[in-house]
Every structure is written in structure tokens, then in C-alpha cells.
Amino acid sequence: MSQSLSGKSILLGVCGGIACYKSVELLRLLMKEGAEVSVVMSGNADKFVTPLTFQALTGRPVYHRIFESGTENAMEHIAFSQKAELLIVAPATANTIAKMAHGLADSALSNLFLAYEGPVVIAPAMNSVMFSHPAVKANIALLQERGAKIVEPASGELACGAVGPGRLADLDDILSATHAILKKNLDFSGVRVLVTAGPTREFIDPVRYISNPSSGKMGYAIAEAFRDRGAQVDLISGPVRLEKPSGVEIFNCVTANEMHDCVHRRFPHCDILVMTAAVGDFAPRTIQKEKMKKQGRQSLNLELQATVDILKSVAQKRTTQFIAGFAAETENLIESAKEKLISKGVDMIVANDISAPGIGFQSNMNQVSLVYSNGSVERLPRADKREIADILLDRIRKELKS
Ligand code: CTP
Q1: CA 275 to ligand 1 centroid distance, Å
Q2: Same-domain status, 230 and 357
Q3: 137 and 209 in one domain?
Q4: Within this chain, do residues 203 and 176 fall inside the same structural domain, yes or no?
């Protein structure tokens, strides 16, 4: 096994559930990968596994009673929580999940959770009826919204004889979540980012609209990359069929006008704006109140008027923000992107050749060139949209430093 967690400080939170014998194996796996693990237990966990087991395995004191830690210096645990890079709660019972969601501090684990500021992985394990209870679901959703990574329980036969979701996830899945977080670069920590994504729709009448095939995948991948690298992300989304990313604040809008208002409201609160949305350039001058009838017509003329250029208008209001726009082109890619960089007054344009087969709209792959404010151009390799997003973030980071 690789030593990929070498030197990483991890807190393993153990709750009082039948699955807590698996925490012993999880601890062993984490240590085998080189992690320095300290164990903290909820009030009932020691009814299943004794603190001595964990103490013997880790060689460290176990925090399991708030007011009698059994160590010479009770504050040692607080010190460790400050140094810890990850808290894994496995198994997480309904009781401890509720305490963590609502800030109760009456067990060593829920107490330490409040004193700890780093990333958290939660692996629930309980009876499947309990797991599907709306109260448990709501508590899990709340923790997830606040950025906790939930490793969903597996389905199967439970200790109580019932069959359904509720078994502690495979330890491999908990390890993968651990790797994903600890190997991560948190270089945008504390940075506030605004990303727009997806198409807009401009209505002709109540049932018809003008739009474009943007899937929103590129913008969502950028929002997720920023989130994973520690940023606080607001995502303004046009209508898309994508899952709402956790740990990101989503603002839904439909028309270019709505997106304009939403961007202008959020912009003063951000440090970086990445405008990925494929905003409609024209909208019908009037929207028919009722569905338009054919009435034997063979043709129909629509009068369109230009929508507001969101990027240009918001760039005029910038104070210290870094602004990147996208350019969707079918010809003269770099030339048009350079023109847009200047006319819109932004710091970078991500130029996207949407006529190239297998990339762009709807696809999971993309191929872009970055046009910088000094006129230089960098062609990025064809890659998955998430990979493109991470390279884009690397370049933005570099631009912010220069
Ligand atoms: N954009 C915007 N508001 C609009 C149109 C575009 O904010 N009404 C933004 C897009 O989100 C993108 C950039 O401007 O970041 C360039 O969009 P693009 O559609 O490539 O260019 P347009 O400005 O619409 O110009 P053209 O259609 O002539 O290429």
C-alpha cells in the first residue's frame, strides 16, 4: 500500500453504532498509508469498542469524555483538532449527525466538531428506516450544504435484520473521499468567486423561447474546481439539467435580464468573476401574453432587440475583481477573443471553438485557448471539462500573483 497519507493529521470520530468495529479497520488502513490518526468518540461509542483499543493502536490518547480526558493535559485534544487536516466521522449515527448539524456539544465528538475548522467526511451508518427519515435526511443535507463530504451508506442486510441502505460505506469509498480531500490543493481558500453557467432563454410567448444548446457543464466544472480548491462559490445558473453541486450557493435565472440583475447583485461581493454563461444576444422586442396562433401564416417575422451585455456592464463596475470571460466562436477564434478581451474590458478570455467536433456545447470534453491581457495566447490540450477547469484555475492563480 502506498504511503499517500504520509504525515497527514487525521481525526477519526467514532459513534456508538454496531458498525463501529469497522472504525478499527479504517484506523488501521489510514495508519498503513502513513496518516497520524487521533480518535475521538461520541458518548455511546465506548459501549461498542473500548477507548483502550484505539489508544493501543494509535499510541495516542483517545478523547471520549469531555471533562475527564484521562490525559495529563486535556487541552492536547484541542491542540490536535487545530492541527488536524481532516475529520472523518465513521460510523456517523443519526444522533451525532443531528448534534453536528445543530451545534450541540455534549459528547467529546460533537464538542470537538465545533472546535474544528477543517474539512469533514461523514459516513453515516444506521437502520435504513432511520436513514430515510426526513429529520435525518435534512440534517445530512444541512451538513452537506456546509461543505461536509457525505460518503453514502451501502445497501444490504443490516445488523437489525432489515435490508436497505444504512450499512457503513465500503472502507475503500471512505478512503477515496479522504484522498480526494487531503491531496487537494486549497490555493483559493478564502477567495470569493462568482461563476455563471448555462444558456439563457428569451421568451416569444408563454410556450416558446429562443435559446442555445449550452449544457452548463463547463461552468459547473469551474464552480466545482473553485469549491474543491477552497473558494467560496456563488454559481448563477441558466436552465440546465445538471445536479446542483454541493457546497456551492446556486442562484437560478432564466432570461439574460434576470442573469444581468443577479450578476450585478453578487458581483460586489466577489474577488473573481468567471462568466461562462452562453447569454442570448437578442430577445423578442415584445413577449406575447398568449400562445401565438399559426392563423394560416406561411412565415413569421420576429422583431428582436439586443440584450444587455452583462460582462461588459459588470466589468465597468469593477473595483479589484479579476474577470474572465468566455468566447464561443465558429471562426477567427483568437482574433475575435482578443477583440472581446478589449471591448469587454476583462483580464482573460477563454476562447472556445464551438464548431470543432466532439468538444464544446453538451460535450464532456473541451479544447480552449486562453487569451491574456498582455496579448499572449496559450492553447490548452483537449481534456475533460473538469481538467480544463483546474488548468484555468492554475492560470488565474498565476495571474493574481503577477
Ligand atoms: N456575454 C454577456 N452578455 C451577453 C452576451 C455575452 O455577458 N449579452 C458574455 C458571455 O458570458 C461570455 C462573453 O460575454 O463570457 C462572450 O460571449 P460570446 O457569446 O462569445 O460573445 P458576444 O459578446 O455575444 O459576441 P458575439 O456573439 O458577437 O460573438
Answers
A1: 9
A2: yes
A3: no
A4: no
94-102 and 134-145 helices, crossing angle to 10°: 50
Q: Per DSSP, which regions of 247-347 are E strands?
A: 249-252, 272-275, 282-284, 304-306, 322-329
Atom of ligand 1 nearest to the CA of 310: 7
Global pTM? Answer: 0.65
* Number of continuous H segments (helices) and E segments (strands) in the chain: 13, 21
Under the banding of pLDDT at 50, 70 and 90, the label for residue 5 is confident
Say yes or no: CB of residue 325 within 6 Å of ligand 1. yes
Measured by CA distance, the residue closest to atom 21 of ligand 1 is 327
Q: Which atom of ligand 1 is nearest to the CA of 349?
A: 15
Structural domain span for residue 375: 192-401
Instruction: Compute, in angstroms, the gap from residue 279 CA to the centroid of ligand 1.
Output: 6
- Domain identity same for 274 and 355: yes
- Domain count of the fold of the chain: 2
Domain match, 203 and 150 both: no
Find out whether the beta carbon of 267 lies less than 6 Å from any atom of ligand 1. no
Q: Does residue 290 sit within a domain?
A: yes
* pLDDT (mean) for 275-295: 96
Nearest CA to ligand 1 atom 8: 309
Tens-place pLDDT, residues 165-204: 899 999 988 998 898 888 767 889 999 999 999 999 999 9
Is position 48 within any domain?
yes
DSSP class of 308: P
Q: Which residue's CA is the nearest one to ligand 1's atom 28?
A: 281
- The answer as to whether 247 is a domain residue is yes
Write the CB contacts of 305 (distance below 8 Å, at least 6 apart in sequence).
Answer: 282, 283, 284, 285
Flag whether 2 is in a domain: no
